[in-house]
Amino acid sequence: MGRIRILSDQVANQIAAGEVVERPASVVKELLENSLDAGATRIRVEIEGGGRKLIRIVDNGHGMVADDALLAFERHATSKLRTSDDLLSIATLGFRGEALPSIASVSRLLLETRAEGDEAGTAVEIAGGAIVRVSEMGMPPGTTIAVKDLFFNTPARRKFLKTEQTELSHIAALVTHYALAHPEKHFELHSATQALLVAPGVASAGERLYQIFGRETSGLMLPTAAEMDFMRAGLPEPPPWKRNEDYVPAAPGYMRLSGFVSKPELQKLNRNSVYVFVNRRLIRDRLVLHALTEAYRNIIPPTSFPVVLLFLEMPPEEVDVNVHPAKTEVRFRQPSFVHNFVRDTVRTTLMEARPAASFMAALDPVSPASHSLLLDVSPLPGGPEDGLLGPNRPESEGDPSAGDVDYFLRPREVPASPGRLEFAGRPLTVGAEEHISAVDPLLGLRRPDGYVEVQAERGPEKWHEGSKPMVAPVAPEPNLSELGSLRSLGQIKDSFILAVNEDGLWIVDQHVAHERILFERVLRERETEQVQRQRLLMPLLVDLLPAQMVAFAEIAKELEANGFEVEPFGPRTLAVKAAPVGLEGRELEQMLEEVLAVPDREQQTENADTRRRRIAASIACHAAVKINMPLDSQKIDWLLQELAKTEYPTSCPHGRPIALRYSHKDIQRAFQRI
Known about the structure:
This protein is about 30% helix and about 20% strand. By secondary structure, the chain is of the alpha+beta class. The N and C termini lie far apart (about 90 Å).
């Protein structure tokens, strides 16, 4: 007798459930996507026991007829695919036909559905994959699915579930994601004791952001929008011998990006507040996450992460969503093209905005230290009277996720809709021209007169900004373009520059301000091959470890391009004969030790651009003026003027803020005049 046997349908469904249904949030995801595919405009999610006891999703979609209600529980039964060619252009969230039979095989499921034209609805009850009851019932058009006792027949899977609060937090995060992705739809999330989310439909993504996360968070977000066609991406075409006589090349289509990115002052300790959607599908793609990391490089600290809400739209043929059982990962047809588009769009938005950090916000230690924007769903019995999400709920000092969360049920006024994102308007500048001063008074470095074009990385050919803001501000937001109008008052402890203008009082960290100026100058001179170096009177000998000698061999060419003249002087010694202007003595030695002390893990993933920026940041840091260094008024004025000319005067290359603004309104409020 042979060894190979065909598995029963029940076992096959339970195996599939192991891939599709990882936890209760996986069930919610699959059913929620089905509701969205059905055209629902109102979706209600009810949870009991963290999803173990009950998951009920009610929608007002187009529903199903009786025959489809039964056929939906057969494996690979779907209304969204017809032929294998349809896999190349999937435009729906679900398509495999595995979700319902997989969920039904590990739970007790009740489906109630009615199509628009039917007189009565259909109820289908299934327990452990076996149909228990099929009957008619009266109900409004739409679908209701109740999943009870999840994993009741697979106790091993049930044992590995986390606590009720943990599972509920995953569900809350998921529903929040899809509420952000579909602002025009009404979403509700209810647990056994309270309503966690009630988000009526609004007209734009900006209003939804304001509605869910509140005024403070939405005020720290920058709208971004860009569009580019695939014409320049080199789309592959079939070879001539496979083309028909009437062959017409397909239109390349457009790639569009819209959404919001956070100002540098809003930082999180993990990526839980990065929301990325590709064709309205929630994804966790390494390529896009890396692009966002590169966009914020030298703007925020490397250990911090931004808050991002981005919608990436492209032709379905350009993205393969059939690469992961849970459909949370995708594969782009042209990954480098997508990566550069996202990176350059976000970086250009930040460079254009030049946001000014508020002095009062910088005093609040909660905002930059919080882990996520998502709500905390771990209440203790006998908590506050106003409930988990009440308006007066105090933040828990021991809860890392409390942070600056704006709780969902806090009563808020939603502003009138200013309109949807439009892909028309003034172009965002990718390159810029800046006047370079003749003398650097802090370093004594003479520079050529005239204008030098600042080269930027190659990015999208067409840049567009939304013609209207997402949430209409009361007054234009001050930015760091006002640095040029500052009038210096002096220094505080020879470390911080005090200056004023019509907007209020400004405090500038002189070290990081000069560091930003030098960082952009080093990159600019490196790009135009105009690096100025100085020869040392006596070569500087630097002793290194064997691992550092290996690191030196990898970055030797980059060091030379930045003005260094270094050569081995023995098996473990380097002789430095020349260095960039401004680096000398102990600072030069520390800079070399710093760039050669990169962990192996980072070296393996470091590309040429990352290495170039890391070395430039190190040169700028060690060449810049230090704290506790007195500066005369002429040097202070030069520093402020040069800082105003930089591309991004918000933060130093290591992510520390450069200037803090104490606005005139804050001063009036402090003196109780308003």
